[in-house]
Amino acid sequence: MKEHDIPCQMVDLRRQYDKIRGEVNEAIQDVIDSAEFINGTRVKTFCANLARYNAIPRVVPCANGTDALQIALMTLGLQPGDEVILPVFTYAATAEVIALLRLTPVFAECEAGTFNLDVSRVEEKITSRSRAIVPVHLFGQCADMEPLLALARRHHLFVVEDAAQAIGAEYRFTDGRVAKAGCMGDIGTTSFFPSKNLGAYGDGGALFFRDDALAERATAITNHGQRVKYHHDLVGCNSRLDTLQAAILDVKLKYLDDYTRARQAAAAAYDERLASLQGATLPRRAAYGTHVFHQYTLRVHDGQRDAWQARLKRDGIPSMIYYPLPLHLQHAYRQEGLGNGAFPVAERLCEEVLSLPIHTELTTGQIDKIAASLHAAAQTR
Hints:
Helices cover 37% and strands 15% of the residues. Helix 3 packs across helix 4 (93-100), helix 3 crosses helix 6 and helix 8 packs parallel to helix 11 (364-378). It is globular. Strand 4, helix 5 (145-154) and strand 5 form a beta-alpha-beta unit. The chain contains eleven helices and 14 strands. Strands 1-9-8-5-4-2-3 form a seven-stranded mixed β-sheet, sandwiched between helices. The chain is an alpha/beta fold. The chain has helices spanning 13-34, 41-54, 65-75, 93-100, 145-154, 212-222, 243-253, 256-274, 305-314, 344-352, 364-378; strands spanning 58-62, 83-87, 104-108, 130-133, 158-162, 170-172, 178-180, 187-191, 205-209, 226-228, 231-232, 280-281, 296-300, 353-356. It folds into two domains: 3-10 and 256-378, Aspartate Aminotransferase, domain 1 (Alpha-Beta Complex), CATH 3.90.1150; 13-109 and 116-253, Type I PLP-dependent aspartate aminotransferase-like (Major domain) (Aspartate Aminotransferase, domain 2, 3-Layer(aba) Sandwich), CATH 3.40.640.10.
């Protein structure tokens, strides 16, 4: 099939699989032959390899990224009524686990350029009941962690990083230190949902730890609160990463840096072809770190976003809106006094953001087609 004839997809997992088919199939067969379907050797191997990749002591696996967030907050021993600060522009799972634990979500404004938590607006949200901050590393690059960590230390707050969209992204501190996304706060979390940069062929998630005591506590929580079988020291849950998924992820982990470079190359190609695009702002890379481009997200101005998306669809090109509503306007998370206008940056972004196809298999021909469609949309008012 010629490059221009390959259908555009938001994520092309089939073509990615075709390149590593033999290794993946062998890994799956090894698990089946061993019959170690739950907490098998391949789970431990994958966690050790991911910890090495992230340069942290411990990785604790779990069933999905949402569970990872919930387990993180449970591990820290937060109590009902405690306040947890999070960005108002993110997926609902971040607020969902806070509400499920009867904690209080406290929304904070985001930056228009990076889409991430605006650290300069966090301190105004801190009260005597504040216990934690959950920065979300949105679309593939880290929130500005150095000032956030300093703020958290001053106020004795925990930091739980939601790195579901940014695995492998790096953050550079002013003293020259470099850390991976999810490896700077008290706990980091990630998701292995299939479309993620390191995706399983089903659900999966993990937590990242620099503190062994916290890692041990989280491990017990994932296993019904057990440290010793049938002895339940904590209220826990049942959240496991299947051995089959761990085996697949361990294969794909070897290629994660290659996958990152492919996404970055695709983003650079978009930048080049869309540099003269009128009526839109291209994604901004923060100077303090790298961007792994889980999403390549434009801001389309002057109320034209939906028209541009319709033009892409007419040209056979998928696109997505992440996210159409900020959390404070979601019915489930409405709070008194937080209506329209409470978070103007986030509300504007929800009207402007448009994410284009980006993945490891995106071709030059596909990018040319997408760019041409966008330029045509910009000329049609």
